[in-house]
Protein backbone atom coordinates (compact mmCIF):
# COMPACT_ATOMS: atom_id res chain seq x y z
CA UNK A 1 0.00 0.00 0.00
CA UNK A 2 1.56 3.29 -1.11
CA UNK A 3 1.41 6.72 0.53
CA UNK A 4 -1.50 7.84 -1.65
CA UNK A 5 -3.54 4.79 -0.60
CA UNK A 6 -2.79 5.41 3.09
CA UNK A 7 -3.87 9.05 2.74
CA UNK A 8 -7.18 7.98 1.19
CA UNK A 9 -7.69 5.18 3.72
CA UNK A 10 -7.29 7.53 6.67
CA UNK A 11 -9.24 10.39 5.11
CA UNK A 12 -11.77 12.46 7.06
CA UNK A 13 -14.85 10.39 6.04
CA UNK A 14 -13.19 7.17 7.27
CA UNK A 15 -11.94 8.68 10.53
CA UNK A 16 -15.26 10.35 11.34
CA UNK A 17 -17.22 7.18 10.45
CA UNK A 18 -14.90 5.14 12.71
CA UNK A 19 -15.33 7.58 15.61
CA UNK A 20 -19.08 7.61 15.03
CA UNK A 21 -19.20 3.83 15.25
CA UNK A 22 -17.02 4.02 18.39
CA UNK A 23 -19.65 6.19 20.11
CA UNK A 24 -22.42 3.99 18.66
CA UNK A 25 -20.94 0.83 20.19
CA UNK A 26 -20.24 2.61 23.49
CA UNK A 27 -23.90 3.57 23.80
CA UNK A 28 -25.29 0.32 22.37
CA UNK A 29 -23.33 -1.93 24.74
CA UNK A 30 -23.45 0.31 27.79
CA UNK A 31 -26.84 -1.10 28.73
CA UNK A 32 -25.47 -4.67 28.72
CA UNK A 33 -22.63 -3.50 30.97
CA UNK A 34 -24.68 -1.51 33.51
CA UNK A 35 -27.82 -3.65 33.31
CA UNK A 36 -27.56 -5.17 36.77
CA UNK A 37 -26.49 -2.10 38.82
CA UNK A 38 -28.95 0.21 37.03
CA UNK A 39 -31.88 -2.15 37.55
CA UNK A 40 -30.95 -2.80 41.19
CA UNK A 41 -30.84 0.98 41.72
CA UNK A 42 -34.45 1.07 40.46
CA UNK A 43 -35.46 -1.50 43.07
CA UNK A 44 -35.61 -4.61 40.86
CA UNK A 45 -35.13 -7.79 42.90
CA UNK A 46 -32.19 -10.10 42.21
CA UNK A 47 -34.48 -12.83 40.92
CA UNK A 48 -36.06 -10.48 38.37
CA UNK A 49 -32.86 -9.01 36.92
CA UNK A 50 -32.66 -11.41 33.97
CA UNK A 51 -36.36 -11.12 33.06
CA UNK A 52 -36.36 -7.32 33.27
CA UNK A 53 -33.03 -7.22 31.43
CA UNK A 54 -34.51 -9.28 28.60
CA UNK A 55 -37.46 -6.87 28.42
CA UNK A 56 -35.18 -3.85 28.20
CA UNK A 57 -32.86 -5.32 25.59
CA UNK A 58 -35.94 -6.24 23.55
CA UNK A 59 -37.11 -2.60 23.83
CA UNK A 60 -33.72 -1.36 22.62
CA UNK A 61 -33.65 -3.83 19.73
CA UNK A 62 -37.20 -2.92 18.72
CA UNK A 63 -35.97 0.67 18.42
CA UNK A 64 -33.12 -0.52 16.23
CA UNK A 65 -35.57 -2.30 13.93
CA UNK A 66 -37.73 0.81 13.52
CA UNK A 67 -34.73 3.10 13.19
CA UNK A 68 -33.08 0.85 10.63
CA UNK A 69 -35.96 1.38 8.21
CA UNK A 70 -36.31 5.12 8.91
CA UNK A 71 -32.63 6.01 8.58
CA UNK A 72 -32.01 3.62 5.70
CA UNK A 73 -34.74 5.18 3.57
CA UNK A 74 -33.65 8.69 4.58
CA UNK A 75 -30.05 7.89 3.59
CA UNK A 76 -31.12 7.06 0.03
CA UNK A 77 -33.64 9.87 -0.29
CA UNK A 78 -31.90 12.78 1.45
CA UNK A 79 -28.28 11.66 1.58
CA UNK A 80 -25.81 9.80 3.80
CA UNK A 81 -24.84 12.91 5.78
CA UNK A 82 -28.41 13.65 6.89
CA UNK A 83 -28.46 10.25 8.61
CA UNK A 84 -25.05 10.72 10.22
CA UNK A 85 -26.19 14.03 11.76
CA UNK A 86 -29.76 13.08 12.68
CA UNK A 87 -29.08 9.67 14.18
CA UNK A 88 -26.23 10.76 16.42
CA UNK A 89 -28.20 13.74 17.72
CA UNK A 90 -31.17 11.51 18.63
CA UNK A 91 -29.23 8.79 20.41
CA UNK A 92 -26.97 11.28 22.20
CA UNK A 93 -29.94 13.11 23.71
CA UNK A 94 -31.68 9.80 24.52
CA UNK A 95 -28.63 8.48 26.34
CA UNK A 96 -28.31 11.64 28.41
CA UNK A 97 -31.98 11.19 29.33
CA UNK A 98 -31.22 7.53 30.21
CA UNK A 99 -29.07 8.79 33.06
CA UNK A 100 -32.20 10.30 34.64
CA UNK A 101 -34.41 7.18 34.31
CA UNK A 102 -36.02 6.25 37.63
CA UNK A 103 -38.33 3.35 36.68
CA UNK A 104 -38.09 0.33 34.41
CA UNK A 105 -40.85 1.70 32.17
CA UNK A 106 -38.98 4.99 31.70
CA UNK A 107 -35.81 3.01 31.05
CA UNK A 108 -37.56 0.89 28.41
CA UNK A 109 -38.95 3.89 26.50
CA UNK A 110 -35.59 5.65 26.53
CA UNK A 111 -33.78 2.51 25.36
CA UNK A 112 -36.33 2.26 22.54
CA UNK A 113 -35.70 5.89 21.49
CA UNK A 114 -31.93 5.44 21.81
CA UNK A 115 -32.25 2.30 19.68
CA UNK A 116 -33.93 4.30 16.91
CA UNK A 117 -31.02 6.76 16.94
CA UNK A 118 -28.31 4.09 17.14
CA UNK A 119 -29.75 2.36 14.08
CA UNK A 120 -28.46 4.94 11.61
CA UNK A 121 -24.79 5.24 12.46
CA UNK A 122 -23.11 2.12 11.07
CA UNK A 123 -25.06 1.72 7.82
CA UNK A 124 -24.67 5.36 6.80
CA UNK A 125 -20.97 5.38 7.69
CA UNK A 126 -20.18 2.19 5.78
CA UNK A 127 -22.23 3.34 2.78
CA UNK A 128 -20.45 6.70 2.66
CA UNK A 129 -16.98 5.15 3.00
CA UNK A 130 -17.75 2.39 0.47
CA UNK A 131 -18.77 5.01 -2.09
CA UNK A 132 -15.88 7.42 -1.48
CA UNK A 133 -12.94 4.99 -1.34
CA UNK A 134 -11.44 3.30 -4.42
CA UNK A 135 -12.52 -0.30 -4.97
CA UNK A 136 -9.19 -1.80 -3.85
CA UNK A 137 -9.36 0.08 -0.51
CA UNK A 138 -13.04 -0.49 0.30
CA UNK A 139 -12.48 -3.56 2.45
CA UNK A 140 -9.66 -1.89 4.36
CA UNK A 141 -11.88 1.13 5.02
CA UNK A 142 -14.72 -0.83 6.57
CA UNK A 143 -12.18 -2.84 8.58
CA UNK A 144 -10.79 0.40 10.04
CA UNK A 145 -14.33 1.54 10.94
CA UNK A 146 -15.15 -1.73 12.69
CA UNK A 147 -11.83 -2.12 14.51
CA UNK A 148 -11.85 1.42 15.92
CA UNK A 149 -15.58 1.39 16.58
CA UNK A 150 -15.68 -1.86 18.50
CA UNK A 151 -13.24 -0.46 21.04
CA UNK A 152 -16.18 1.63 22.26
CA UNK A 153 -17.26 -1.41 24.30
CA UNK A 154 -13.87 -1.49 26.04
CA UNK A 155 -14.06 2.20 26.95
CA UNK A 156 -17.66 1.79 28.14
CA UNK A 157 -16.57 -0.98 30.51
CA UNK A 158 -13.70 1.01 32.00
CA UNK A 159 -15.82 4.15 32.46
CA UNK A 160 -18.67 2.15 34.02
CA UNK A 161 -16.20 1.01 36.70
CA UNK A 162 -14.87 4.52 37.28
CA UNK A 163 -18.30 6.19 37.44
CA UNK A 164 -21.81 5.10 38.35
CA UNK A 165 -24.29 4.12 35.64
CA UNK A 166 -25.91 7.57 35.47
CA UNK A 167 -22.62 9.30 34.65
CA UNK A 168 -21.68 6.58 32.14
CA UNK A 169 -24.82 7.43 30.14
CA UNK A 170 -24.09 11.17 30.39
CA UNK A 171 -20.57 10.61 29.04
CA UNK A 172 -21.90 8.59 26.09
CA UNK A 173 -24.37 11.31 25.19
CA UNK A 174 -21.71 13.98 25.54
CA UNK A 175 -19.30 12.13 23.26
CA UNK A 176 -22.00 11.93 20.60
CA UNK A 177 -22.72 15.65 20.76
CA UNK A 178 -19.00 16.41 20.50
CA UNK A 179 -18.79 14.23 17.38
CA UNK A 180 -21.42 16.40 15.69
CA UNK A 181 -18.79 19.13 15.44
CA UNK A 182 -16.40 16.81 13.58
CA UNK A 183 -19.20 15.81 11.20
CA UNK A 184 -19.31 19.34 9.75
CA UNK A 185 -16.14 18.65 7.72
CA UNK A 186 -17.48 15.47 6.05
CA UNK A 187 -18.62 15.68 2.43
CA UNK A 188 -21.44 13.82 0.70
CA UNK A 189 -20.80 10.79 -1.53
CA UNK A 190 -20.24 11.77 -5.17
CA UNK A 191 -21.93 8.56 -6.34
CA UNK A 192 -25.05 9.48 -4.35
CA UNK A 193 -25.06 13.06 -5.71
CA UNK A 194 -24.91 11.66 -9.25
CA UNK A 195 -27.83 9.29 -8.56
CA UNK A 196 -29.80 12.19 -7.06
CA UNK A 197 -29.90 13.83 -10.52
CA UNK A 198 -31.19 10.66 -12.22
CA UNK A 199 -34.79 9.63 -12.81
CA UNK A 200 -34.67 6.59 -10.53
CA UNK A 201 -36.50 5.55 -7.38
CA UNK A 202 -34.41 6.14 -4.26
CA UNK A 203 -34.97 4.61 -0.84
CA UNK A 204 -38.04 2.57 -1.81
CA UNK A 205 -37.91 -0.11 0.90
CA UNK A 206 -40.63 -2.16 -0.80
CA UNK A 207 -38.48 -2.40 -3.93
CA UNK A 208 -36.50 -5.04 -2.02
CA UNK A 209 -39.55 -7.32 -2.27
CA UNK A 210 -40.54 -6.79 -5.92
CA UNK A 211 -38.01 -9.24 -7.40
CA UNK A 212 -37.35 -12.73 -6.05
CA UNK A 213 -33.59 -12.53 -6.62
CA UNK A 214 -33.37 -9.16 -4.86
CA UNK A 215 -35.48 -10.36 -1.93
CA UNK A 216 -33.35 -13.51 -1.48
CA UNK A 217 -30.16 -11.43 -1.49
CA UNK A 218 -31.65 -9.09 1.11
CA UNK A 219 -32.68 -11.95 3.39
CA UNK A 220 -29.33 -13.64 2.82
CA UNK A 221 -27.49 -10.49 3.90
CA UNK A 222 -29.52 -10.42 7.13
CA UNK A 223 -29.28 -14.05 8.16
CA UNK A 224 -25.54 -14.55 7.66
CA UNK A 225 -25.22 -12.34 10.74
CA UNK A 226 -27.58 -14.36 12.94
CA UNK A 227 -24.83 -16.08 15.02
CA UNK A 228 -23.26 -12.69 15.78
CA UNK A 229 -26.16 -11.32 17.75
CA UNK A 230 -27.02 -14.63 19.36
CA UNK A 231 -23.51 -14.50 20.79
CA UNK A 232 -23.67 -10.87 21.92
CA UNK A 233 -27.35 -10.68 22.88
CA UNK A 234 -27.57 -13.92 24.84
CA UNK A 235 -24.26 -15.65 25.63
CA UNK A 236 -22.31 -12.51 26.51
CA UNK A 237 -25.01 -10.14 27.79
CA UNK A 238 -26.33 -12.76 30.21
CA UNK A 239 -22.93 -14.20 31.11
CA UNK A 240 -23.43 -13.52 34.87
CA UNK A 241 -26.50 -15.78 34.74
CA UNK A 242 -24.74 -18.44 32.63
CA UNK A 243 -21.64 -18.58 34.83
CA UNK A 244 -23.18 -20.42 37.85
CA UNK A 245 -24.87 -22.94 35.54
CA UNK A 246 -21.53 -23.57 33.81
CA UNK A 247 -19.87 -24.12 37.20
CA UNK A 248 -17.62 -21.06 37.00
CA UNK A 249 -15.77 -20.45 40.27
CA UNK A 250 -15.90 -16.76 41.11
CA UNK A 251 -17.98 -13.78 40.01
CA UNK A 252 -18.40 -13.02 36.31
CA UNK A 253 -19.12 -9.37 35.47
CA UNK A 254 -21.20 -8.58 32.39
CA UNK A 255 -19.02 -5.56 31.61
CA UNK A 256 -15.84 -7.61 31.56
CA UNK A 257 -17.47 -10.32 29.44
CA UNK A 258 -18.64 -7.68 26.92
CA UNK A 259 -15.22 -6.03 26.91
CA UNK A 260 -13.28 -9.22 26.21
CA UNK A 261 -15.80 -10.29 23.58
CA UNK A 262 -15.44 -6.97 21.78
CA UNK A 263 -11.65 -7.06 21.95
CA UNK A 264 -11.98 -10.43 20.23
CA UNK A 265 -14.51 -8.98 17.79
CA UNK A 266 -12.13 -6.17 16.85
CA UNK A 267 -9.33 -8.71 16.43
CA UNK A 268 -11.54 -10.93 14.28
CA UNK A 269 -12.77 -8.02 12.17
CA UNK A 270 -9.23 -6.88 11.45
CA UNK A 271 -8.13 -10.43 10.64
CA UNK A 272 -11.13 -11.30 8.46
CA UNK A 273 -10.88 -7.99 6.61
CA UNK A 274 -7.18 -8.43 5.83
CA UNK A 275 -7.64 -12.08 4.77
CA UNK A 276 -10.55 -11.07 2.54
CA UNK A 277 -8.37 -8.46 0.82
CA UNK A 278 -5.52 -10.96 0.45
CA UNK A 279 -7.54 -13.80 -1.12
CA UNK A 280 -10.02 -11.62 -3.02
CA UNK A 281 -13.20 -13.08 -1.49
CA UNK A 282 -15.79 -12.07 1.10
CA UNK A 283 -17.90 -15.25 1.19
CA UNK A 284 -15.06 -17.72 1.78
CA UNK A 285 -13.82 -15.79 4.79
CA UNK A 286 -17.34 -15.46 6.25
CA UNK A 287 -17.82 -19.24 5.94
CA UNK A 288 -14.60 -19.92 7.87
CA UNK A 289 -15.55 -17.52 10.67
CA UNK A 290 -19.06 -19.00 10.98
CA UNK A 291 -17.42 -22.40 11.52
CA UNK A 292 -15.11 -20.89 14.14
CA UNK A 293 -18.14 -19.44 15.90
CA UNK A 294 -19.77 -22.88 16.04
CA UNK A 295 -16.63 -24.36 17.63
CA UNK A 296 -16.53 -21.59 20.22
CA UNK A 297 -20.24 -22.11 21.03
CA UNK A 298 -19.40 -25.63 22.16
CA UNK A 299 -16.35 -24.43 24.11
CA UNK A 300 -18.47 -21.83 25.93
CA UNK A 301 -21.32 -24.18 26.82
CA UNK A 302 -19.12 -27.16 27.78
CA UNK A 303 -16.07 -25.48 29.32
CA UNK A 304 -13.31 -27.85 30.46
CA UNK A 305 -11.92 -25.22 32.87
CA UNK A 306 -14.13 -23.41 35.36
CA UNK A 307 -12.22 -20.29 36.30
CA UNK A 308 -13.29 -16.72 35.56
CA UNK A 309 -10.04 -16.20 33.65
CA UNK A 310 -10.83 -19.04 31.26
CA UNK A 311 -14.44 -17.85 30.98
CA UNK A 312 -13.29 -14.40 29.83
CA UNK A 313 -10.81 -16.02 27.45
CA UNK A 314 -13.68 -17.95 25.84
CA UNK A 315 -15.65 -14.68 25.57
CA UNK A 316 -12.64 -13.29 23.68
CA UNK A 317 -12.66 -16.34 21.38
CA UNK A 318 -16.40 -15.93 20.76
CA UNK A 319 -15.63 -12.37 19.70
CA UNK A 320 -12.96 -13.57 17.28
CA UNK A 321 -15.40 -16.09 15.81
CA UNK A 322 -18.09 -13.50 15.15
CA UNK A 323 -15.41 -11.12 13.86
CA UNK A 324 -16.91 -11.05 10.39
CA UNK A 325 -19.21 -8.16 11.38
CA UNK A 326 -17.36 -5.65 9.17
CA UNK A 327 -17.48 -8.07 6.22
CA UNK A 328 -21.16 -8.70 6.93
CA UNK A 329 -22.03 -4.99 6.63
CA UNK A 330 -19.67 -4.48 3.68
CA UNK A 331 -21.31 -7.36 1.81
CA UNK A 332 -24.73 -5.77 2.38
CA UNK A 333 -23.54 -2.42 1.01
CA UNK A 334 -21.94 -4.06 -2.04
CA UNK A 335 -24.93 -6.23 -2.99
CA UNK A 336 -27.27 -3.40 -4.01
CA UNK A 337 -27.30 -0.31 -6.23
CA UNK A 338 -26.76 3.27 -5.08
CA UNK A 339 -30.49 4.05 -4.94
CA UNK A 340 -31.05 1.26 -2.36
CA UNK A 341 -27.59 0.98 -0.80
CA UNK A 342 -28.19 3.02 2.34
CA UNK A 343 -31.58 1.36 2.87
CA UNK A 344 -29.98 -2.08 2.80
CA UNK A 345 -26.73 -1.24 4.63
CA UNK A 346 -28.72 0.36 7.45
CA UNK A 347 -31.63 -2.07 7.74
CA UNK A 348 -29.54 -5.25 7.52
CA UNK A 349 -27.37 -4.79 10.65
CA UNK A 350 -30.36 -3.49 12.61
CA UNK A 351 -32.67 -6.28 11.51
CA UNK A 352 -30.07 -8.77 12.67
CA UNK A 353 -29.72 -6.90 15.97
CA UNK A 354 -33.51 -7.04 16.18
CA UNK A 355 -33.44 -10.84 15.98
CA UNK A 356 -32.35 -10.69 19.62
CA UNK A 357 -36.07 -10.27 20.37
CA UNK A 358 -37.21 -13.68 19.01
CA UNK A 359 -33.92 -15.27 20.10
CA UNK A 360 -34.38 -14.20 23.74
CA UNK A 361 -38.03 -15.30 23.66
CA UNK A 362 -37.02 -18.69 22.23
CA UNK A 363 -34.25 -19.02 24.81
CA UNK A 364 -36.66 -18.14 27.62
CA UNK A 365 -38.98 -20.92 26.45
CA UNK A 366 -36.26 -23.52 25.89
CA UNK A 367 -34.44 -22.94 29.16
CA UNK A 368 -37.70 -23.81 30.91
CA UNK A 369 -37.86 -27.06 28.91
CA UNK A 370 -34.27 -28.30 28.62
CA UNK A 371 -32.24 -25.91 30.77
CA UNK A 372 -29.92 -23.00 30.00
CA UNK A 373 -27.06 -24.93 28.39
CA UNK A 374 -29.04 -27.16 26.04
CA UNK A 375 -31.50 -24.35 25.26
CA UNK A 376 -28.62 -22.09 24.21
CA UNK A 377 -27.03 -24.95 22.25
CA UNK A 378 -30.20 -25.61 20.25
CA UNK A 379 -30.61 -21.93 19.34
CA UNK A 380 -26.89 -21.44 18.63
CA UNK A 381 -26.61 -24.40 16.26
CA UNK A 382 -29.82 -23.31 14.52
CA UNK A 383 -28.36 -19.84 13.88
CA UNK A 384 -25.25 -21.46 12.35
CA UNK A 385 -27.31 -23.62 9.97
CA UNK A 386 -29.42 -20.63 8.91
CA UNK A 387 -26.28 -18.53 8.34
CA UNK A 388 -24.78 -21.14 6.00
CA UNK A 389 -28.01 -21.42 4.01
CA UNK A 390 -28.15 -17.61 3.78
CA UNK A 391 -24.54 -17.41 2.59
CA UNK A 392 -25.50 -19.33 -0.55
CA UNK A 393 -28.15 -16.71 -1.44
CA UNK A 394 -25.76 -13.78 -1.76
CA UNK A 395 -23.26 -12.80 -4.45
CA UNK A 396 -19.49 -12.65 -4.13
CA UNK A 397 -18.95 -8.89 -4.23
CA UNK A 398 -15.21 -8.45 -3.79
CA UNK A 399 -14.00 -5.78 -6.21
CA UNK A 400 -17.47 -4.86 -7.45
CA UNK A 401 -17.96 -1.38 -8.95
CA UNK A 402 -20.38 0.52 -6.67
CA UNK A 403 -21.63 2.90 -9.38
CA UNK A 404 -24.87 1.15 -10.41
CA UNK A 405 -28.59 1.37 -9.63
CA UNK A 406 -31.40 -1.07 -8.88
CA UNK A 407 -34.00 -0.85 -11.63
CA UNK A 408 -37.16 -2.99 -11.93
From TrEMBL:
Main location per the UniProt record: membrane
PROSITE patterns: MFS
Record GO terms (molecular function): carboxylic acid transmembrane transporter activity
InterPro entries on file: MFS, MFS_dom, MFS_trans_sf
Location of the Major facilitator superfamily (MFS) profile domain: 13-408
Pfam families to which the protein is assigned, alphabetical: MFS_1
Localization terms from the record: Membrane
SUPFAM superfamilies, per the entry: MFS general substrate transporter
Membrane topology: Multi-pass membrane protein
The protein's name: Major Facilitator Superfamily protein
